[in-house]
Fold:
Amino acid sequence: MKIVVLVKQVPDSGAERRLREADHILDRESADNLINEMDDYAIEEALRLQEAHGGEVTVLTMGPQRAAESIRKALSMGPDAAVHVLDDALAGSCAVATSAVLAAALRKLSPDLVLCGAESTDGRVQAMPHMLAERLGTAALTGARKLTVDGSTLTVERQTDEGYELVTAQTPAVVSVWDTINEPRYPSFKGIMAAKKKPVSTLSLADLGIDPGEVGTAGATSAVLSHQQRPPRSAGQKVVDEGEGGRQLVEFLASEKFV
Amino acid sequence: MAEILVVVEHAGGLVKKVTLELLTLARELGEPSAVVLGAPGTAAALTGRLGEYGAAKVYVAESDELDRFLVAPKATVLAGLVRQVDPAAVLLGATQEGKEIAGRLAVKLDNGLLADISGLAADGTATQVVFAGATVVTSRVTRGRPLATLRPNSITPVPAPAPVAPELAELAVTLAEPDRLATVVERVAEQRGARPELSEASVVVSGGRGVGSTESFALVEELADLLGGAVGASRAATDSGFYPHQFQVGQTGKTVSPQLYVALGISGAIQHRAGMQTSKVIVAVNKDAEAPIFELADFGVVGDLFTVVPQAAEEIRKRR
Structure:
């Protein structure tokens, strides 16, 4: 089975994140950039499927030069190779354009299965798997907390607000996973060393046959007009429980008409 | 007046709250038309409610195939409708399905997508709260019409000044083969009891690592029930198996925006704050006086939740 895992480099969600003052584009320079956390689970799932069914696992990333660090990190977990879609014209791409670029790269790679995280921690749009499926004409099984593969039949438990749905499709397909699906491995020392030698190929927009005017800030289908830091919430009243804490809490809730 | 399409979310014959928020918003922007997509017989139970909130028209697409296959058929029907009626805007809830349908629509129509907005002005400018609630962004589509998903609980739903008897318009469900690729074999409901849905609830009571065990979550549930709220959990609590993952609030779970958020035994790491920072009123109970949750709590109790919460519960009962 040929698996491609989508890996996105994002600013550390545990630290302060900003947009650039001039153009409202994500400030990647000042941030700690990491693999989108949910993608670790997609990589792990791909490796488990490879262990069970054979085949190859390729990492696909679209991002600036520095995303190469995240690609090596992803490879150190165990995938065989990576493809980096790299082109200066991509900066500031909207989700619609990003999906066109990734879909073009996926057509070149023609995997049986595309695995990705259910959402990125920066954009949180949660639409990419369906955007890709729409472009590729394949199935999208999204929000999986469990994935089983039986030949060319995929079955997922899709987590919903009410519980879960059992959804099935044939390969080729796009599957997005939640962090409940597995426990990602840590890269071993051997894995880290091996990752340095694994093939990483680069694709430009020209390689993908995409007009630079259709992507990046120039081709974006939406634009940020302004951004500002939200005033931080100010701490309110804090009491130390000396036997009346519960009642004091209810007193406050009553003053706010919640009780 | 400009027609605004609102894609209706429904469950068990009821219109979801986020749809009522969308209709309230749509009335500010133009004339709302609701779109009901579902199995045959879905719309009948919903139109009255949609009319109360000002839907002048209800488009009805009913087919078993809308239910049997995941998302794609709904996007196809909607794209057809958008091409046909050329609405001024298309609004969906920023729910799992709403986000997914919107993504497909954006590609089908080559239209910009405004994701997880908290407001939309008549000139098409959307407001979004991003980066764990730290940054407010305004944005607009530069191609197509405003196609937006609204974060639940962003707007107070208000019925229309006078209820409308909506005009019904049936939509043909004409699908293509790629719409039938992901089959829903079974839908399994897991226990939530009678509590409101997490992302829609006006009150959310969440437990964290400090709750300590699955059994102790009964305390969180008790307070939630007394306040008529939903139960949430921090990642530490769901990762420890204290509570099911679908109730997780935070960066890797749900984003909630209730009137009241009660954090019990939650330290308030930035990942958690990402999911609840836009709550109107926040209260917290935590043993650790230095816990970051107190930095955003309107009212905080430094103390043991195992004594504070039962006392609070008793006090609420007394006041009834």
